[in-house]
């Protein structure tokens, strides 16, 4: 009789331990994700909009986006703050200053009252510059695009950051190319 009780206690303890392990593993799967859309592909995860992070149902009083499988007001990646896809690729002439406009969607009201920045990645370097939000467009301040390679063009991306710490990013980015006209005078940016 005591052996049956002991056996059941061991089984219950083991099950409770394993359940906690499964929950901890699921939590770790969420916390390592930095994209809203990717977060919502994991059934145990939710996206905290204000905190701009993926968690396992730990958003508190934050706006929460749930996976599409959950019946909720904000459910699925269509509610993720993101750069609008399908914008035409930008092409810049190396050495020229240009302003960039990025169309975004799913802007939550409180976001509009925070500072905005654009993060430009080109030539293996990251540059963060001031930006302004007007309606659903982010206007990045003028930036001198340079192709520092020996290639006719280099590619880069620009993404959108918001909040006072500038660590909260919209999903997605806008691609661009920077042409060296001395190596490729047929580049669209060189014929302007």
From TrEMBL:
The keyword Nucleotidyltransferase does not apply. Residues 91-165 form the Plexin TIG domain. It comes from the Eukaryota. Gene3D superfamilies: Immunoglobulins. Pfam families: TIG_2. Residues 1-24 form the signal peptide. This is Plexin TIG domain-containing protein. InterPro entries: Ig-like_fold, TIG2_plexin. Keywords: Signal.
